[in-house]
Design a protein that fits this description.
Blueprint lengths: L1 H20 L5 H8 L1 H16 L1 H17 L3 H12 L3 H13 L3 H11 L8 H13 L3 H14 L5 H15 L2 H14 L3 H13 L3 H15 L4 H6 L1 H12 L4
Length: 249
């Protein structure tokens, strides 16, 4: 019994530290420490799991599977819904469907229309607009949206925002800002995407010391991967291999 109580308390403390680091409401500390077992379960389901990379990864995999079966289904349905009822919600859905379908320029136009109205401070829409702008090659617009997100809430999708900001600075040729942003992204998440993108950029800069160090970490991670994980990152792995295949200067 004492061991079980200690385990419950340890889990509660883990979530309490997470709550403090991520800026959650202070009442979570009371709930977690007063009711360690029940409080931890509630916190895990309502706060920790929805924001975790595991949950985001599972969502991406599910969307990828559905898209592989009928790639244009969501775009067809979103367009039909918007044509039937051009509401803000249907406009957002169509913009996202266009982005997922690779129609970044059209997607950006819809997202930016949404940001002119009641959703002007909606960070999810602005994040999607930043992604669409980057994919469309409108890098100044992408950077503007990312900086607005940071100004409104520095914790919002901090890993992903840092990485896209780094890639945007890299595409703009802002080497110093790109390096700082890549290092911040790696420090914040340490995930495969941030390390791989940083390594790819570093090879282009001729910084093989940084690139090789990152590549060692990436190889260690990939050795433990399942086939599904490799398939999910196929495009990024291809870009990584191409970057390291170039002649060293």
């Amino acid at each position: 019994m004492p061991i079980a109580i200690g385990l419950h308390l340890a889990v509660a403390i883990f979530f309490a530290v997470h709550a403090v680091r991520t800026g959650q409401q202070t009442y979570w500390l009371f709930i977690l420490l007063s009711f360690p077992l029940l409080g931890s379960l509630i916190y895990f389901l309502t706060i920790y799991l929805p924001s975790s990379r595991l949950q985001r990864g599972a969502t991406k995999l599910a969307k990828a599977a559905a898209k592989s079966l009928d790639p244009s289904r969501e775009l067809r349905e979103a367009r039909a819904a918007y044509e039937y009822a051009p509401t803000a919600q249907n406009q957002i859905r169509l913009a996202q469907a266009l982005l997922d379908a690779g129609e970044a320029r059209q997607s950006l136009a819809y997202f930016e229309q949404c940001l002119q109205g009641i959703f002007s401070e909606d960070l999810e829409i602005r994040w999607s607009a930043a992604q669409a702008a980057f994919d469309a090659g409108q890098l100044d617009a992408a950077l503007r949206h990312l900086e607005t997100i940071r100004a409104q809430d520095a914790r919002f999708r901090s890993d992903a925002v840092s990485l896209l900001m780094a890639r945007t600075h890299a595409a703009l040729g802002n080497a110093a800002q790109a390096r700082a942003a890549f290092e911040a992204a790696v420090a914040q998440s340490g995930n495969f995407d941030s390390k791989a993108e940083y390594a790819i950029w570093a090879t282009g800069q001729g910084d093989w010391r940084t690139a090789d160090a990152l590549h060692q970490d990436l190889d260690a991670s990939m050795r433990r991967w399942t086939r599904q994980q490799r398939d999910f990152h196929r495009d990024l792995i291809r870009r990584l291999k191409a970057a390291f295949a170039q002649e060293r200067r």
